[in-house]
Design brief:
Number of domains: 2
Number of helices: 6
Strand order of the largest sheet: 1-2-5-6
Structural class: alpha+beta
Shape: globular
Number of strands: 6
Distance between the termini: 55 Å
Largest sheet: 4 strands, antiparallel
Strand content: 15-25%
Amino acid sequence: MMINTIKDKAFVSRKTIHVREITCVAYQRTDGLIDIEGTLVDTKPEGIFLQERGGIGPDEPVHEMTLRLTVDRGLQIHDVVAETVHSPFSICGAITEHYKLLLIGQQIGPGFIKSAKRNFRGTSGCTHLTELLPSISTTAFQALWGEPANVDGSELRADESSKLPFDGCHALRSDGVIVKMYYPEAYSNEQAESHDPA
């Protein structure tokens, strides 16, 4: 398996000992809803032994979990499917229905990840399934923001630009040059003034 690595002039010889891959895919459904499906796979380049599964060969999944959230365009969750395909212990998959019970009806937005992590912390969830939620959430935003209607370079409609994570990163800070130039309706210099030492 080919893995892209950071190029470093002071490179030290090394070897791969563990690989975690997280893949998220958004699907447009014929009923108008959107499936956001995230999969986490852990592999090791050398075989290991697990108490319940016995010998695990090189690059064979130690963990493989998939979590699918079905959302509408307001990012409200209509359905949840969680599946444990591979895990160290057979009991790991017994928690999957808990995700359906606690996530349906919620909306992906501010506070969603914090709330979800609180609901699934400790013995109330699976660490790996819960780890997929932030990636699935950002994939949902990307799926809605980059819809085909906008690939011609036309400006986003007001309701579409409102889905952008303003102040969620340094590039999209509400008092920054990018927001001022491309999304003036969302631009605010209040943040800049609050940081002004004068």
